Amino acid sequence: MKQLLWKLVLKIGRHDYSKEYEQINRAIGKNQLEELREERIKELLVHAYQNVPYYKKILREAGVVIRDQVDLTKFDQIPLLTKDIIRSNFESLTSHDLNTRRWYYKRTGGSTGEPVKFIHDDRYTKWKNAANKYYYSNVLGVDEDAVKKIILWGSEADLLRAKTGFKKKIMSYLRNTVVLNAFKMDEASMSSYVEKINSYKPYVIRGYSGALFELADYISRNSLTVHSPHLVISAAENLYEYMRRSISKTFQAPVYDFYGTREVGDIAGECQNGLMHQLPFNNFIEILDDRGQPATKGRVIVTNLHNYSFPFIRYEIGDLAELGPQTCDCKIPTPTLKELTGRVTDCLAAIDGSPVPSEFFIHFVGVTLNQGQIRQFQVVQKTRDEIEILFVPLGELPAQNRRDIETKIRLVMGESCRIVWKQVETIPKTKNGKYVYVKSLLSRERER
To answer: Which one of 47, 186, 209, 445 has the minimum C-beta count within 10 Å?
Structure first.
């Protein structure tokens, strides 16, 4: 009954992605994935040339689109899209026919770079959901809509004790989903999470890598009994091997890593053989070296095939990856990634010792800060009771904004947490050429 109601909700909301999912399976069944990808790229480029001012100029100069004819042999001549370009060219990157589809604003919440505003639309959402369904159904063998799920994710509303909207409650009910707040990982919260897992008995647990590890560590340290799901899916942060071992041992379930970003959605998901299968019907991936040439290991460049409102064409997301084999023994017929790096974020420690995921600062403090007053920021934990916020200003940062941010930080770090603001000219990058939003200078032994 729930599944029927869920399908009805999707149709009414114009988010039914069954046709897109059927297209994926049909292309795979006919061994036409490459043809599907090329067709989608050509359609995207023609649309961008006709409707997106930034790309009209770029594609003409690169010789990729001439009189609505696409020359894919020159695709690699298209300049890379970066976060700085998006900030400087937001209006010209927005499609002229934006209002012909349902669209909405989004912001990045990743571990590097400053938050960036962009646009998603219903076409993008349908294909993202179809790609997600393909991963669950075809790679993991799970009917995601039907099984019980617990999601350990960031929830600012829960953190501020706001009431969950009726619509969200209904959607969660129909999707058999319970959301636990990864921004609240103190002992009392984690105790209640264990109780919820044991009472709900989910088939799948999915969450931030760091939050899953902290919960597993809490369960182990306290010798608690916890329900064993069929599988655990890690996302949003790097999944290190010590994390995987701890999570798998504690929950007595296999752990699968999933790779995606807020800007372009689902990119790749791990199979039973430990390879990350690309989802090429949703995103086209290139790996480039420092000279911009195709490489086995290097920078991840993504072209989303379906966001016509705000195209991401050859977008450098700031991650590093290594290509895996083109085929895999699991029989999933998509190319693979062997190794991912670059999603490194530190987990800070509150005054009482409880862990606070860096995603709290990235999602919450970063978005609050990025209102036109600063260009970059970095949160550094120097001691258990001191947080330093480095920021590169664009304008004056009002005192009230600072006080609001400090209040939110103390809500999770502790009321006596000392917060120091430090204006700087620049924030240095890591050796991988990335900005780190949040880092801890505390010495925390992670290997168990």
So the answer is: 445
